[in-house]
Write a structure and sequence with these properties.
alpha+beta, OB fold (Dihydrolipoamide Acetyltransferase, E2P), about 270 residues, 8 helices, 17 strands, five-stranded antiparallel beta sheet, elongated, Rossmann fold
Length: about 270
């Protein structure tokens, strides 16, 4: 029988060590090596591995965050960590084994054999509800922005789950006390960050500041027209109306005239 695997660890030596050990077993095909939680979520959802080798303590996104965020649950998860205090929680979320670094080759192959033998057995089919409930008992951080964009996605940690938001689906962002509202088509997520910081992250992806309190995805702009002697009104394609303040209108019009060439701006601009 053939098995697929994904290796997740923020330390390169650890990833390479597990990979070398797995090369000795011809039944295992490693589909991905992941150095952080975000790439792990993407790889697990994409490859749907039978066996997951998962580190716990990683920057910003823990191994438990990864499990909480994936759409596919691997058939067997083996935690690999240098910390013994997570062992109880690991088994509460139905881990097959818990390898405490540094572990011996013999100990590793014991865990691997345990995972292989458990796959497909009725006795290992746990309730997904119980698995998720165990994860939900952990104290979670709300509305945390993951520092680096991932390709064309914005990663947001909300209630312990990592949301990989496609930038092309974010309509606009709104300052809200000490948070940012990230507006999608039918809901929003709260992120603890500043609009200035968000502007820096997203300006290369077609987002532009239109007001001290709002940043808009130019893909969704439908029209812009005067609203008062000093302000303009911007309408998104789904009908939301946003204010464009005089401090930001010049930069907005310059950007839009580059994207939607018009002979001259006459006070009304419509997306093509």
């Amino acid at each position: 029988m053939k098995y697929t695997a994904v290796i997740v660890d923020d330390e390169q030596d650890a990833r390479e060590g597990i990979s070398l050990l797995l090369q000795q077993d011809e039944s295992i095909e490693v589909k991905a090596h992941c150095s952080d939680g975000i790439t792990a979520i993407l790889a697990i959802n994409n490859h749907k591995p039978d066996i997951l080798f998962l580190d716990i303590q990683m920057p910003q996104i823990t191994g438990f965050d990864v499990l909480r965020s994936v759409n596919y649950r691997p058939k067997a998860t083996i935690f690999t960590t240098a910390y013994d205090e997570f062992a109880l929680k690991a088994f509460e979320v139905h881990a097959i084994d818990y390898l405490l670094k540094p572990f011996s080759d013999t100990r590793f192959y014991e865990a691997l054999q345990h995972a292989k033998s458990s796959i497909g057995k009725d006795s290992t089919k746990k309730s997904d509800t119980g698995w998720l409930n165990a994860l939900d008992q952990e104290n979670m951080v709300n509305g945390e922005l993951i520092e680096r964009p991932v390709g064309e996605r914005l990663a947001v940690k909300d209630n312990g789950k990592i949301h990989l938001l496609e930038l092309s689906k974010i309509r606009w962002l709104e300052a809200y006390d000490y948070y940012i509202k990230v507006h999608l088509s039918d809901h929003f997520l709260l992120v603890r960050d500043s609009l200035k910081n968000m502007e820096t992250k997203l300006k290369a992806h077609g987002f532009i500041r239109i007001h001290k309190s709002s940043l808009v995805n130019t893909l969704f702009i439908a029209t812009i027209q005067p609203a008062s002697p000093k302000e303009y009104s911007l309408t998104l394609k789904e009908g939301q109306q946003l204010k464009v303040s005089r401090n930001y209108k010049a930069a907005l019009f310059e950007y839009l005239n580059m994207r939607w060439p018009v002979p001259a701006f006459n006070g009304h601009l419509t997306a093509k």
